[in-house]
Amino acid sequence: MYGRKVKLRFFFVLLILTTLALSVFLLIKSLEENVIFFKSPTEIKALSEIEKNKIRIGGMVKKDSITMISKEIKFVVTDFKNEINVVYSGVVPNLFAEEKGVVAEGYLKDKNFFLATKILAKHDENYMPPEVKAALEEK
Amino acid sequence: MASLIGSYSLGFGLFFSFLIIFFSFRNLRNTEILDKRILSFTFIQFFFVVISFLGLIVSFVNSDFSNETVFNNSHTTKPLFYKISGTWGNHEGSLLLWLLVLTLFISIFLIKSKQQPKKYRIFTLLFQQIIIIGFFIFLIKTSSPFNYISPTPNEGLGLNPILQDPALAIHPPILYLGYVGSSIIFSSALAAMVTSYVSKEWAKHVKQWVLASWVFLTLGILLGSIWAYYELGWGGFWFWDPVENVSLMPWFALTTLLHCILVLEKKKILTSWAMILSIATFALSMSGTFLVRSGILNSVHTFANDPERGLFILIFLFILIFLSIFIFIFFHTEKEKLENSFFWLSKESSILVNNWFMMYFLSVVLIGTIYPIFLEVLTTNKISVGPPFYNKLILPFLIPFLVAMAIGPNLNWVKSDFKNKFYMTMFLIISFLLSALIIKQFDINFLINTILVTSAFFLFFSTFREFFVKRFRNLSQNIAHFGFSLLILSILFNNIFSNEVITNLKIGETFKTEKFTINFEKIEQEDEKNFKAIKGKFNVQNLDGTLDILNPELRIYNQPNIITSEADIKTNLLTDKFMTMNYVQNQEYFNIRYQVKPFMIWIWISVILISFGGFLSFFKKRYEI
Question: How far apart are CA B222 and CA B170, in angstroms?
Answer without folding.
Answer: 11
